[in-house]
Amino acid sequence: MGGDQIIISDFHVRPIIGVHEWEKSSPRDIYMTLYLGVNISAAAETDHLDHTVDYDELTKTLKVFCERSNFNLIETLAQSCADIILTQFNVHEVLIRLEKPAALDCSKSVGIQIHRVKPNV
């Protein structure tokens, strides 16, 4: 992933997620780091929010979506978040690193990383 990026680190959400019944009984902690591929040239020149990604709005949108979601797999959650980012915001490329703490007794967390590009970019 090259070019300009907006980075949102350790964004915390609490969806219902997991394949085990005990995971489905209450929301689980998920931490996402987002790398948003954007062109910030116009924003840097004009100092106007309209020329970049409103990351406050983006995180609010993702938080509402995630906390209303119910998925078995973190892979599905990551793909759904990438779809929202690429379709609803002026982002041409996204890399999402998603971590689920305490998913295994023997590790701090289990995570995945996906990279998606908006079609026709």
Quick overview of this protein structure:
Helix content is 28%, strand content 32%. By secondary structure, it is an alpha+beta fold.
Description:
The protein is of the alpha+beta class and 121 residues long. It has three helices and six strands; from the N terminus they run E-E-E-H-H-E-H-E-E. The longest helix has 15 residues, at 74-88.
What's the structural blueprint in terms of helices and strands?
Blueprint: E1 5-13, E2 16-17, E3 30-37, H1 41-46, H2 55-67, E4 70-71, H3 74-88, E5 93-101, E6 109-117
Parallel strand pairs: 2-4
Antiparallel strand pairs: 1-3, 3-5, 5-6
Percentage of residues in DSSP E strands:
25-35%
The helix/strand order is: EEEHHEHEE
**What does the main sheet amount to?**
4 strands, antiparallel
Number of helices: 3
User: What's the N-to-C terminus distance?
Assistant: 13 Å
Measured on Cα atoms, how large is the radius of gyration?
A: 15 Å
Which class of secondary structure composition applies to the elements? alpha+beta
Query: What is the global morphology?
Result: elongated
Biggest sheet: strand arrangement: 1-3-5-6
DSSP, total strands: 6
Which spans have pLDDT < 50 for at least 5 consecutive residues?
none
> How would you state the average pLDDT, rounded?
92
Helix content range of the residues, please?
25-40%
